Amino acid sequence: MLRTSSKVLFATATLLLICMASSSQEGEEEERCFTDGAFRAARAQDTCRSLVWRQAAWAERVPPDQPYVWTADFHAAPMACDAPLLEKLGAIVHGEVDFSNCGHYPSLCRKRLKVLGFDAWRGFGLDPCPHALRRKFFDAYKRDAEFWRVDLFVCHHPAANCELLLPFNRSLLVHATTRLEFGRDDSLVDWRRPFMAGPGGSARAAERWAAWVKTLQAIAGDPRHTVAANNLFDVRYIKYHTGIDAMYLPSWCEPPNTGGHDKPVTYEPLPGKEVLLVPYRDNLPKRNGWRHPVLEGLERAAKARASQFYFRRLQDAYAGGYSWADLAKHPALIFIPYQVSTMFFFEAYRLSIPIFAPSLALLSRWVREHGILWERIYGTPQRQRHASWAAEPDDPNSNEVGLEYWLGWSDIYHFDHVILFDNWEHCLELLGSTDFRAVSAAMKETNIKSREMLLRQWEGILGRATRNNPAAMVPKIVGHDHGDTEYLTFGRLGARPWPLMDFDSQMRALWPNLYTVPLAPDVAAQAETTCPSLSSFEVRSLFTWTC
Question: Crossing angle, helix 343-350 and helix 436-467, to 10 degrees?
Fold first, then answer.
């Protein structure tokens, strides 16, 4: 049995070596199609022709005047919310989302993603060997025909994974939807802790955080790129940690159409429907949430006033899931935030359902007394020195000094017509005196104006991506045959897509002030994991080419 296993292992290893050698040779030959004119002429009918055909296919699939937007987030909702505006502006949006909620937006689900993956949560931090993975990703995509056609890469969740896309010489949109340290130095996220465990784990996380801050500052310093956040808390948070004035680019989250009809979902409350306590996840106890002091207060106030309204938690009313058409039948929503900004808030607001929320004073008291909103704090990353050090006061990750200032940037305080209450008695009074339909109509008008503003912002982002990106390549057919070797003169500006073909050279050329020394070897957090060295041969042979 042992002898047989050895033979199998030997045969497998031999096949793998042959496979890697042939694939490595193929990759080197494709590279020579760009760099060696004599080779290009000699191999015009095989290697270079195949490369030309792949490139031509993408050129024909995405016309040159149509921006191509690409993302590989680990959350489908941010891009799903932005996509309708991008498509309205003529862009094609392609997602490679490898996360469970992409099932709600199947067009954005992973189809041909290489190297990167959810991988039992490892993808959020590029773990366990982030530097090797960045090189592996570059090697996998540096001759990818689709990547050559991309105009704009978008990174939402986590924003820090834009590090993967630095060497591709394309415009980047870093569009943060939550804290900047997510995926890098976020030890208060319980499922991220194992990736920072072990000797030196905290120090490595701190180093990666510092490197990400410097990277973001370099991105912000290039006019081709955009640094933004979909909420004002993260706009100020980015300023606090980096000194960058990020663009405020709220998520749109267009109301869906109803069951295949052209008519979008609209607010149509039905008599007798409950006021819903939202969102679905409120971080109160699931089974006995009404015994939590926050909800006990509502129950007491409702009994004392003999309120005409019935109240129900969203997770109880729709335990098996809900549609937006379901929510639009309820008279109002009461937000009990678990985060300063959520996609649910944008979605509910765009439906123009009246929203009631705790005042800043009440929310701050709930945080101090009951610990709600604990999920807003991902970690306690060290603040990096920058020129705008005094621009933001106090620590955003504290529940004491500066709490009211930072909570004041929550979405509920910066969207018109959200109705704020100071206590539960006040909430019941407002519910009884509010004209829900009038509030909904006012929200609808605000949404119309917001949509026009967002379209202008996205138009500017796409304009920078297509006008000022010298590598937004479109192949030019010089002859009548796609096999014409002159087809390999790509580009609106006549340049080759990748002027330099190895990771280190490409990074030095594109980011000279950022990439002054090569990436250091990885040291995995988990003791049982061994990271490969970063030599070019090992990375290419172990990671890039397979049979």
Answer: 120
Q: Is 308 exposed, middle or buried (0-12, 13-18, 19+ CB in 10 A)?
A: exposed
Cβ partners under 8 Å of residue 170, min gap 6: 147, 150, 151, 152, 153, 465, 469, 471, 472
The count of C-alpha atoms lying within 13 angstroms of the C-alpha of 49, restricted to the half-sphere facing its C-beta, is: 10
Measured in residues, the chain has a length of 547
Its pTM stands at 0.88
pLDDT at 180 over 60: yes
Phi/psi of residue 93, each to 5°? -110, 125
Q: What is the mean pLDDT of residues 127-135?
A: 95
Predicted pLDDT of residue 503: 93
- Range in 163-167, 174-178, 282-286, 450-454 with the lowest mean pLDDT: 282-286
CA–CA distance, 336 with 366 (Å, rounded to integer) = 10
Does residue 523 surpass a pLDDT of 70?
A: yes
Task: Kindly report each contact of residues 263-270 with a partner whose C-beta sits within 8 Å and lies 24 or more positions away, as own/partner.
Answer: 265/324, 265/325, 265/328, 265/351, 266/328, 266/351, 266/352, 267/328, 267/351, 267/352, 267/353, 267/437, 267/440, 268/328, 268/329, 269/328, 269/329, 269/330, 269/331, 269/436, 270/329, 270/330
Residue 248's H or E segment, with its range, is strand 247-248
Sign of the C-alpha dihedral computed for residues 185, 189, 193 and 199 taken in this order? positive
Number of C-beta neighbours around residue 171 at 10 A: 27
Over range 245-250, report the average pLDDT: 98
Q: What pLDDT sits at residue 289?
A: 83
Sketch the domain layout of the chain as residue ranges: 25-58+479-506, 59-252+456-478+507-544, 275-444
Measured over the CA atoms of residue 40, residue 41, residue 47 and residue 52, the dihedral's sign is: positive
